[in-house]
Specification:
Number of domains of chain B: 1
Number of domains of chain A: 2
Strand order of the largest sheet of chain B: 2-1-3-4
Strand content of chain A: 25-35%
CATH class of the largest domain in chain A: Mainly Beta
CATH architecture of the largest domain in chain A: Beta Barrel
Structural class of chain B: alpha/beta
CATH class of chain B: Alpha Beta
Number of strands of chain A: 15
Order of helices and strands of chain A: EHEHEHEHHEEEEEHEEEEEHHEHH
Oligomer: heterodimer
CATH architecture of chain B: 3-Layer(aba) Sandwich
Helix content of chain A: 25-40%
Low-confidence stretches of chain A: 124-129
Largest sheet of chain B: 4 strands, parallel
Shape of chain A: elongated
Helix content of chain B: 40-55%
Number of strands of chain B: 4
Number of helices of chain A: 10
Mean pLDDT of chain B: 89
Structural class of chain A: alpha+beta
Low-confidence stretches of chain B: none
Chain lengths: 283, 139
């Protein structure tokens, strides 16, 4: 029998995508004989769901407000898997439809997403590859005024957008470089990609927001997203503190590293770029 | 004549997840805002209100609200009230079951005939109240 989950959906109303999130949540609960958590009642009376929350948790959001995710964060719930219906439909290239009652075509897509959610890898897990992404041992530094920019010299590839890919076998973790996190300042928000999403080289794989600006995270490599780092959503400052290791954003199963590599910079080349940028740096 | 969104009566169901009465509250709301009084009514996602969304709070404070709750926990009523909303009417689905012993409304995911029948009655009651609040305007 499939693993049982507790499912915390958003309220699922008011916009076309809300009822889709609700349908996905109900389908997941039905398929795994899980427990459904009413978000509003949970907000008012968390003890009501203490037993249900002994199960691993799936969070399903509809719109970009991400009420269910916020609720989970506020109550310090450990999220095993998550899905946002808006992004999921966008990634499938499908319309979310109109009106508050999903049509049969939309319901079929909801069922597909529910099945994917049940078979997806867990958020924040490295699928056994943790050891392969061991902490880099060698950093070069570029100093400019009071700023020190670190660059890992081995195992990492960079693009000119100051995003990196840490390669291990047929996978890569992706994140933003020290230069970029310092340029942005204190991060307040990080958006992760959907597990299972296909990403092109130099395609968007997430975003970060700071008190100064919002910036897309550009994937230096192409492939399929197989894991995402939920920790940086709950605590974006991890990226500020440790951008190359604990601050990874997504893990990608590589599609064509040989071709992708042609357009990327190794540590030495990126070091030269940062030296040039640092000379012009105005925080 | 087209109505501006902020002149509509807000019909606000509870989350409506996990229990058949909640599903009925939600379906009755859909029936009113999509079909019976689409110009005069609108709905609002209760979770937005609970999370303090400014637009949602402003909406319940400036537009007349009808809350509809599935169960006696009254999540919709309590949260609209807590947000300082203007509650013109509070409806409870469980009240519609009085005098209907043995009614089989369905499940949390699917309504059966009894459930749809009672839901339609609730929707008509809500729509009538929307019209009253709009001063008896006909659609």
């Amino acid at each position: 029998m499939a693993e049982r989950f507790a499912v915390l959906p958003c309220n699922g109303l008011d916009k076309a995508v809300g009822p889709l999130a609700r349908e996905i949540a109900l389908m997941v609960v039905e398929a795994c004989q899980g427990e459904l958590i009413c978000p509003v009642l949970y907000n008012n009376l968390p003890a009501h769901y203490a037993k249900a929350l002994e199960l691993p948790l799936i969070v399903v959001d509809g719109c970009g407000t991400r009420c269910a995710s916020k609720l989970a964060t506020e109550h310090d719930l450990k999220v095993r898997r998550k899905l946002q219906a808006t992004d999921a439909f966008k990634e499938m290239g499908e319309s979310r439809g109109e009106g508050l009652t999903p049509d049969p075509e939309r319901l079929a897509l909801c069922r597909l997403l529910a099945e994917r959610l049940l078979s997806a890898p867990d958020e924040g897990t490295a699928l056994g590859s943790e050891a392969a992404f061991a902490e880099p041992v060698e950093y070069a530094t570029v100093t400019h005024d009071k700023f020190i920019f670190r660059i890992p010299m081995k195992g990492y590839l960079f693009d000119e957008n100051h995003c990196w890919a840490h390669i291990a076998g047929n996978r890569a973790r992706v994140g933003i470089a020290d230069y970029m996190q310092q340029e942005l300042g204190d991060l307040t928000f990080c958006e992760l990609p959907q597990i299972g999403a296909e990403v092109e080289q130099f395609g968007e794989i997430g975003s970060v927001e700071s008190v100064k600006a919002v910036s897309d995270i550009i994937s230096p490599v192409s492939g399929r997203v197989v894991a995402a780092n939920a920790a940086v959503v709950e605590a974006p400052e991890i990226i500020n503190e440790d951008p190359y290791v604990k601050g990874w954003v997504a893990e990608v199963e590589l599609r064509d590293l040989a071709s992708d590599r042609d357009l990327l910079l190794d540590g030495e080349a990126y070091l030269a770029l940062v030296r040039q940028k640092a000379a012009e740096y105005r925080p | 004549m087209a109505e501006s969104a902020n002149s509509r009566v807000l019909v606000i169901p509870c989350s409506g997840i996990g229990k058949v009465h909640g599903l009925m509250a939600r379906e009755a709301t859909y029936r009113v805002v999509d079909e019976l009084e689409p110009q005069a009514s609108g709905t609002l996602c209760l979770a937005l209100l609970v999370k303090g969304d400014e637009e949602a709070v402003e909406a319940v404070r400036t537009q007349p609200c009808i809350t509809i709750d599935g169960c006696p926990k009254l999540c919709s009523y309590k949260n609209v009230q807590l947000a300082g909303g203007t509650i013109a009417e509070s409806v409870r689905v469980v009240d519609a079951f009085k005098g209907r012993k043995g009614a089989q409304p369905g499940t949390a995911t699917e309504l059966e005939q009894d459930g749809w029948t009672i839901t339609e009655e609730i929707a008509q009651q809500l729509a009538a109240r929307v019209r009253e609040l709009r001063g008896g305007e006909e659609q």
